[in-house]
Prior knowledge:
- The protein is globular, with a radius of gyration of 16 Å.
- The two termini are 19 Å apart.
- Strands 4-7-1-8 form a four-stranded antiparallel β-sheet, with helices on one face.
- It has one domain (15-115): Alpha-Beta Plaits, CATH 3.30.70.
- It is an alpha+beta fold and 121 residues long.
- Strand 2 (30-31) and strand 3 form a beta hairpin.
- It has helices at 36-46, 89-102, and strands at residues 16-26, 30-31, 34-35, 51-56, 59-60, 68-69, 80-87, 107-115.
Amino acid sequence: MAGGTELTPGGRGEAKMAVQVTMYLHEDDQWERRSLHLQVLKYLREENVFGAVAYHAVAGFMGRMRLKTATLVDAGGKLPVVVSFVDTDEHVQRVMPRLKEMAANRLIVRENVVVEQGDLD
């Protein structure tokens, strides 16, 4: 981890380091003819990643594109879907190559975070 910080196993009362990854996708992105964000979540579950969630935007933009908003008529499949997950650095390093393949040409952000409460067990 950056700056020589080591992950700690997460005993009570001690700071625990983890890695959070955020993926910025479009709702119409596909992987093997299925919704990409659901395929990412399925893959992360299969790889026993601690926790993951997908957020479906009601409005947003990616890159330098126009702002898209959800309407009752038609969102056009271009609204952002954000997938975020957290785990140890070891687990994140293991799953990143496949995620980069699945979400080619999409923004993926990795951050070192402090787990304030709970364990990654």
